[in-house]
Amino acid sequence: MHFAHRLNHLPAAWQERLGYVLDCMRIVLGIILVSKAVQFIGNREYLNNLFANAKDLWFIPAIITHYVILAHLAGGAMLIVGLLSRAAALLQIPILLGAVFYVQLPQMLNAHEPQQLEYALMVLLMLGIVVVHGGGKLSVDYLVWGKPASPNTPEQPSQHAP
């Protein structure tokens, strides 16, 4: 609680720089997701091997594979430019949760391949930060919809003539 109280009283210049750091993090996260989608497109066998046990339900692995690739490509591009950043990050969270619990944890227990659990958890944490923080000043969201009204500032009365 003490840290959160101190964070609210940071100088305005530091808060502005923190916003730009979070914007850079969002852009890098988008680049990571797009590059992962391109990697999945180039190596479809990797995704197919993940679903080797689901032979009876052939359509579910196909649907999940297409969703992962499309969500990483579109969501990553949306995060790079900052278009609907919260929605793009929210669409990635189920994929990363599946990657952590369905792919990485069993691999960690078997210790057959190099683990990427830390990488998946880091990306999941970054997605959570984007969901909470939003697009930021360096985003299309900010350019289109502007800064949301602060709850402490009273609304201006309308200037409409009766």
Structure description:
The chain is an all-alpha fold and 162 residues long. The protein has one domain (19-145). It has seven helices and no strands. It has helices at residues 2-8, 12-42, 44-50, 59-81, 85-110, 117-133, 140-145. Helix 2 runs antiparallel to helix 4 (59-81), helix 2 (12-42) crosses helix 6 (117-133) and helix 4 packs across helix 5 (85-110). The longest helix is centred in the first third of the chain and has 31 residues, at 12-42. The model is unreliable at 149-155 (pLDDT under 50).
Percent helix, as a range, is over 70%
Number of strands: 0
What is the number of helical segments per DSSP (H or I, 4+ residues)?
7
Strand proportion: under 5%
Shape: globular
Overall mean confidence score, pLDDT: 76
Give the termini distance in whole angstroms. Answer: 49 Å
Order of helices and strands: HHHHHHH
Supply Rg: 20 Å
Structural class: mainly alpha
The biggest sheet, with number of strands, parallel, antiparallel or mixed sense and barrel status, is: none
Outline the low-pLDDT stretches.
149-155
Number of domains: 1
List keywords for this structure.
72% helix, mainly alpha, 162 residues, globular
Short account of what is shown:
This protein has 162 residues and is an all-alpha fold. It has helices at residues 2-8, 12-42, 44-50, 59-81, 85-110, 117-133, 140-145. The radius of gyration is 20 Å and the shape is globular.
